[in-house]
């Protein structure tokens, strides 16, 4: 009985040893399989990684050639910022210079002209509509009335002032001005050379246009146009501008003119108010009643 038990225990021991050997063998094969799989994966993905690295290097190189390196781009951005700062500074200097010229012209108009003007500053205006209407900082308390004439001091001209428009609405401290560019503000003019009359009636963003009342009128480029005094608003003799172009309509029934105004309507800063009740004296800089416009160079 004891012999059988001992033999049975020996069989169990042998079986255990065999199982352990099998497990060891399987583990060894699994390791080899894993290693083989890893080698296969490496052999597959390694070339892909190398190719990807090569492509990314080429792209990076091309980007740096086109846009520059990071340091180069930073330097370019810095230069662009400095350039913008210089442009702003240049614009400020240009504004100062232009205002200086304007103030000198205004001083002459106030001191030398025989007319009595009131200074007014342009305020509360939409830059998109300034060429047609704007507001000034003078109103009822300053004696401003509807139909008072608005002019601007001008430099580099035979006249001290140029026509801007008229007052159309008056409030306690401000007034609204309608310029000659407004469609509702047709202005009658006279050619200072021929004495022929015409009307300003068409406006674009850059030009002022009109026509001669008589199709046979004599009008030429560089002729000076002044207000005619007709219509009861603008007194005669205010400088409007010079003729820059003369054309006939297709049906030959209308002679059209384009004029250059000395007033920059898109950059109005300060204007001069002429009371409608005041007598107006032609604001010529030179004492020459026979002035016929700008002379050819």
Could you explain the architecture of this structure?
Keywords: Cell shape, Coiled coil. 36% of the residues lie in helices and 24% in strands. With 297 residues, the protein is of the alpha+beta class. The chain folds into 2 domains: 132 residues, Thrombin, subunit H (Beta Barrel), CATH 2.40.10.340; 77 residues, Rod shape-determining protein MreC, domain 2 (Thrombin, subunit H), CATH 2.40.10.350. The chain is elongated. The C terminus is likely disordered.
Query: Which range does the strand content fall in?
Result: 15-25%
Which spans of ≥5 residues are poorly predicted at pLDDT below 50?
91-97, 287-297
Strand and helix order: HHEEEEEEEEEEEE
> What is the terminal-to-terminal distance?
145 Å
Structural class: alpha+beta
Largest sheet entry: 6 strands, antiparallel, barrel
- Helical proportion? 25-40%
Shape descriptor = elongated
Total beta strands: 12
Number of domains: 2
Number of helices: 2
CATH class of the largest domain: Mainly Beta
CATH architectural grouping of the largest domain:
Beta Barrel
What integer value in Å does the Rg equal?
Answer: 44 Å
Oligomer: single chain
The CATH topology name of the largest domain reads: Thrombin, subunit H
